[in-house]
Amino acid sequence: MTVEIPDPADLTVVDTDVAVVGSGGAGLMCVLHVKDAAPELDVTVVSKGAVGRSGCTRMVQGGYNAVLDPADSVDLHLRDTLEGGKFLNDQELAHTLVTDAPKVIHELETRVGCFFDRGPDGRIHQKAFAGQQFDRTVHRGDLTGIEIMGRLRDQMFRVLPSELEDVRALDLVLDADGELTGLTALDVRTGKALLIRARVVVVATGGSATMYRIAAPAREKTGDGVAMCWRAGLPLRDMEMLQFHPTGLLADQARMTGAVLEEGLRGAGAYLFNAVGERYMARYDAERMERSTRDVVSRAGYTEIMAGRGTSAGGVLIDISHLGKAEVERLFPGMVERTRQIGQDLATGPVEVSPTAHFHMGGVLIDRDCRTELAGLLVAGEDSGGTHGANRLGGNGVAESTVFGARAGDTAVAEVVGRALREPDRAQVAASLARTYAPLSRTSGETPFPLTAELKDAMWLGCGVVRDGAGLRDCLGKIGELTARLEHVAVPGPAQVNYGWQEALDLANQLAVARAVVVSALHREESRGAHYRSDFPEQDDAQWSQYVVLRGNAEVETHQVQHTRLSPEEVS
Amino acid sequence: MPANALTVVVHRSDPEAQHSFRVTRTEPMMVLDLLLAIQREHDAAIGFKYSCRVAMCGTCTVRLDGRSVLACQTPVPPERDTVRIDPAAGLPVVRDLVVDTAPFWREWAKVTPYLVPRDDLTEPAVIAPDAEERQLIDPGLDCIGCGACFSSCAVAAGSRDFLGPAALNRAMVLVADSRDAAGAQRLAAAGGAGGVDRCHYVYGCSAVCPKGLDPAGAIRQLRAWRLRPGSADDR
Ligand SMILES: Cc1cc2nc3c(=O)[nH]c(=O)nc-3n(C[C@H](O)[C@H](O)[C@H](O)COP(=O)(O)OP(=O)(O)OC[C@H]3O[C@@H](n4cnc5c(N)ncnc54)[C@H](O)[C@@H]3O)c2cc1C
Ligand code: SF4
Ligand code: FES
Question: Could you give the strand order of the β-sheet that contains A126-127, starting from the edge strand earlier in sequence?
Answer without folding.
Answer: A64-65, A137-138, A126-127
